[in-house]
Automatic annotation (TrEMBL), chain A:
The lineage of its organism: Bacteria, Pseudomonadati, Pseudomonadota, Gammaproteobacteria, Candidatus Competibacteraceae. Belongs to the binding-protein-dependent transport system permease family. LivHM subfamily. One of its GO terms (biological process) is amino acid transport. This is Amino acid/amide ABC transporter membrane protein 1 (HAAT family). It comes from Plasticicumulans acidivorans. The chain crosses the membrane at residues 6-28, 35-60, 66-87, 99-121, 148-167, 188-218, 230-258, 265-284.
UniProtKB/TrEMBL annotation, chain B:
It comes from Plasticicumulans acidivorans. Belongs to the ABC transporter superfamily. It holds the Pfam family ABC_tran. SUPFAM superfamilies: P-loop containing nucleoside triphosphate hydrolases. PANTHER family: HIGH-AFFINITY BRANCHED-CHAIN AMINO ACID TRANSPORT ATP-BINDING PROTEIN LIVF. This is Amino acid/amide ABC transporter ATP-binding protein 2 (HAAT family). InterPro entries: AAA+_ATPase (IPR003593), ABC_transporter-like_ATP-bd (IPR003439), ABC_transporter-like_CS (IPR017871), BCAA_Transport_ATP-bd_LivF (IPR052156), P-loop_NTPase (IPR027417).
């Protein structure tokens, strides 16, 4: 069975690869969307925080004997706490200023964090072993899918959908949605909005760190891993609609698939297809596919 | 307007309140007081500073100075969310219904600030339209229904000092009538209410006192008893 003279198994295999990349796009753009929604800050440090997640997991194995499964919980908590510290000490001073200042600050932070890690560890990757129980592959008929990659898809889907359910179905989520629309009024009702902002930023950063831990066994741990990925993730956020929660998840996975498909149909275009889509979406729907016009 | 402060008696005393938005100095020493169970109005032309007065009480303006004494607590330096927990309910001019929340989510959103608020069932009995549309998106309601929701939302929290900003603006007479009934019922239940209102005919029968604001200052205080004799002067001030 062929499609455009390309064997179907090849297409299916690239779709699965696309789904894995899409899982990372979804996790990272979800965190960006939550942060942008409530804080109105474009968190340019997101890629560096993803990289920190991978590095802290690597430190854990290297120096503290923390295994992968513990790292999956502990690393997001640690890096999230670091994010909250940044929010309290630096970002919180900028809320009354233009959005551009937040962007510049987080961009500067990203450069500093990455620079420090390049200085200490160089640009080459550090290997991170795949956990014992996820070694080997599954035979899907059209391809052998490494178990670990299947786990990445499942774990990110669960975390994304779980986050979405919390935001859409719980009281805490109602506070987040209301705060995204009108944080002053929410505070006038007696909700401690400054605390909520700190926790929300921490949660967004923790999602990035979680993605970093998931990525460590696949992509190796290197200081530049975040900046390579984050440009695509920003394109995903723009396509989905800044601040749209569901939009970021669906667009992240969808664009991973599109990218995978492009790799078999027209390999040369696979690096640019997301940006072409971004340009088209911006022309037709400037607020993004799921965004609301302001 | 200068009376000795009696903490068990006055719900709110505002003195020499100045407030700014950025560099603009909006309030120039507002003075007024509300006793427990009273309903007072803030009257004035557009841009006089009525809305800013309500926002400044809650700490929603920029820099502010002077004194806002709530139930005996000086709150001029407090963050907004703590002020609400002294029992203040705020209904903003634009109603502030959240589009990403359903009617019921909007209704139960504000946290309890005191005990003794109305239950959701009581509120649905008071505003039957809201019960019918509880699953709708908040901003899909008509203007009148949104206003009912904005009122119901703060009655559930137990707040007993209500700051209501232009609640009748742009609404049909039958809804204005309904809001008047609601305010009357709240008064008999002992709520303290500060009403910012352009619709003087709506406010007059309900209010114990009227404060007229011009250029960020209270220029006149008219009690219910004085009202008939001061009507002409008041009309002139308000330009109605």
């Amino acid at each position: 069975m062929d499609f455009l003279n390309i064997p179907l198994p090849a297409i299916l295999a690239q779709l699965v690869v696309g789904l894995i990349n899409g899982s990372f796009y979804a996790l990272l753009s979800l965190g960006l969307a939550i942060i942008f929604g409530l804080l109105n800050i474009i968190n340019f440090a997101h890629g560096a925080q993803y990289m920190l997640g991978a590095f802290v997991a690597w430190f854990g194995v290297q120096y503290l004997g923390v295994n992968y499964w513990a790292a999956l919980i502990l690393v997001p908590l640690t890096v999230g706490a670091f994010g909250m510290l940044l929010e309290r000490t630096l970002l919180s001073r900028l809320y009354r200023e233009d959005h551009l200042y937040g962007l510049l600050l987080t961009f500067g932070l990203a450069l500093i964090i990455e620079g420090v890690f390049v200085q200490l560890y160089g640009v080459s990757g550090k290997p991170y072993a795949t956990p014992e129980s996820l070694r080997g592959a599954l035979n899907l008929g059209f391809m052998f899918l490494p178990k670990y990659r299947a786990w990445v898809i499942v774990a990110s889907l669960v975390v994304c959908l779980g986050s979405w359910l919390i935001i859409e179905r719980t009281k805490l989520g109602a506070y987040l949605r209301a705060g995204t629309e009108n944080s002053q009024l929410l505070q006038a009702f007696g909700v401690n909005v400054p605390l909520m902002i700190t926790l929300t930023y921490g949660f967004g950063v923790a999602l990035a760190a979680f993605a970093g831990v998931l990525a460590a066994p696949i992509f190796q741990v290197s200081p530049k891993m975040g900046s390579d990925l984050i440009i695509v993730v920003f394109a995903v956020v723009v396509i989905g609609g800044m601040g749209s929660i569901l939009g970021s998840i669906v667009t992240g996975l969808g664009l991973g698939l599109v990218e995978g498909l492009t790799k078999v149909i027209w390999p040369q275009a696979s690096g640019t297809v997301i940006f072409v889509i971004m340009a088209i979406v911006l022309l037709i729907r400037p607020a993004g596919l799921f965004g609301k016009e302001k | 307007m200068t009376s000795a402060f009696r903490p068990d008696f006055e719900a709110l005393q505002v003195s020499n309140l100045h407030a700014y938005y950025g560099e603009s100095h909006i309030l120039h020493g507002i003075e007024f007081e509300v006793r427990r169970g009273e309903l007072i109005t803030l009257l004035g032309r557009n841009g006089a500073g009525k809305t800013t007065t309500l926002r400044a009480i809650l700490g929603l303006t920029g820099r502010r100075s002077g004194s806002v004494n709530l139930n005996g607590q000086e709150v001029i330096d407090w963050p907004t969310h703590r002020i609400a927990h002294l029992g203040v309910g705020y209904c903003p001019e634009e109603r502030g219904i959240f589009a990403s929340l359903s009617v019921e989510e909007n209704l139960v959103l504000p946290p309890q600030v005191r005990s003794g608020g109305m239950s959701v069932e009581e509120l649905y009995a008071m505003f039957p339209n809201l019960a019918e549309r509880r699953k709708s998106q908040g901003t899909r309601l008509s203007g009148g229904e949104q206003q009912m929701l904005a009122m119901a939302r703060i009655l559930r929290t137990g707040a007993n000092l209500l700051l209501l900003d232009e609640i009748t603006e742009g609404l049909a007479p039958v809804i204005v009538q309904k809001l008047g009934d609601v305010l009357g019922a709240l008064k008999t239940r002992g709520y303290t209410v500060i009403l910012v209102e352009q619709n003087f005919r709506f406010a007059a029968p309900l209010a114990d006192r009227h404060y007229v604001i011009e250029h960020g200052k209270v220029v006149e205080c008219i009690s219910r008893e004085q009202l008939p004799s001061r009507m002409d002067a008041l009309h002139q001030r308000l330009g109605v």
